[in-house]
């Protein structure tokens, strides 16, 4: 069977306690030296006996170097802890300030909108009225500035358009003047001979024949043909019959 766990407690026998202290101290120093060699660690060991005698071990040549390093390390950790606490305290304070400011701004916004006015005193209402009047004056000033800038811009555009209109009107007048001075040249720019176009067109006089004259002429022609072809038997209607038919 294995050895059971021994309960650790103070040795009441003084001699046994002194012997155990000497043995365990030597074993503790040996273990400290082994861990410093095997693990390349800096080890410092300080022991005070019941009589106040000092026993020490150091893996370095001097124990003071390890103790200084220990003090620096503990001091740095303490400062970091303090700074962390201060930082947390500062953050808490900053959060409280920002939260209070946000609540005040929300209250002011509601008051500007005409809400929650019952809890305000006369002086607070007067201050609120003055703030609103000041804000309205600033808004009107900015509005008038924008309106004046817009009017100036429109006037500038109107002047530009008027100048363009005047230029176009001048060009139109010059064109009309050229057409008035040289109408034919402007109308026929290729130098055509226009004498024939200016002369009046000749009028054709058509003979007006009446029905009687036409028939009379035809009778004369038929009489001539009758004299020429006397020997032949004519089948043409005699002139006197034609004359009666015309009437």
From TrEMBL:
Q: Where is the MADS-box domain?
A: 1-61
The record's subcellular location field reads: Nucleus
One GO cellular component term of this record is: nucleus
Its GO biological process annotations read: positive regulation of transcription by RNA polymerase II
Q: Name one GO molecular function term.
A: DNA-binding transcription factor activity
UniProt-listed SMART domains: MADS
Where is composition skewed (Basic and acidic residues) in this entry? 171-188
Name the keywords, alphabetized: DNA-binding, Nucleus, Transcription, Transcription regulation
SUPFAM superfamilies the record matches: SRF-like (SSF55455)
Gene3D superfamilies for this protein: Transcription factor, MADS-box
Translocase keyword on record: no
**Per the record's keyword annotation, is Electron transport included, yes or no?**
no
Q: Which top-rank group of organisms is this from?
A: Eukaryota
Where are the residues of the annotated region Disordered? 169-202, 216-235
Query: Boundaries of each K-box domain copy?
Result: 88-178
Protein name as catalogued:
Uncharacterized protein
């Amino acid at each position: 069977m294995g050895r059971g766990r021994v309960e650790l407690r103070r040795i009441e026998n003084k001699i046994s306690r002194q012997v155990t202290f000497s043995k365990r101290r030597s074993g503790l120093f040996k273990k400290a030296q082994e861990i410093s060699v095997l693990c390349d660690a800096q080890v410092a060991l300080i022991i005070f006996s019941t009589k106040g005698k000092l026993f020490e071990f150091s893996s370095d040549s001097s124990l003071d170097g390890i103790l200084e390093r220990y003090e620096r390390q503990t001091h740095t950790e303490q400062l970091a802890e303090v700074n962390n606490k201060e930082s947390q305290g500062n953050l808490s304070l900053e959060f409280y300030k920002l939260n209070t400011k946000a609540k005040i701004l929300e209250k002011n916004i509601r008051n500007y909108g005409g809400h929650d006015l019952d809890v305000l005193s006369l002086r607070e209402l007067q201050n609120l009225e003055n703030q609103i009047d000041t804000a309205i004056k600033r808004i009107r000033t900015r509005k008038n500035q924008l309106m004046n800038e817009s009017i100036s811009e429109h006037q500038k555009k109107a002047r530009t358009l008027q100048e363009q209109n005047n230029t176009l009107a001048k060009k139109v007048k010059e064109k009309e003047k050229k057409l008035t001075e040289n109408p034919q040249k402007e109308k026929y720019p290729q130098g055509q001979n226009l004498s024939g176009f200016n002369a009046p067109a000749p009028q054709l006089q058509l003979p007006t024949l009446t029905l009687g004259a036409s028939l009379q002429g035809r009778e004369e022609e038929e009489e001539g043909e009758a004299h020429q072809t006397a020997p032949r038997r004519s089948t043409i209607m005699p002139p006197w019959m034609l004359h009666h038919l015309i009437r």
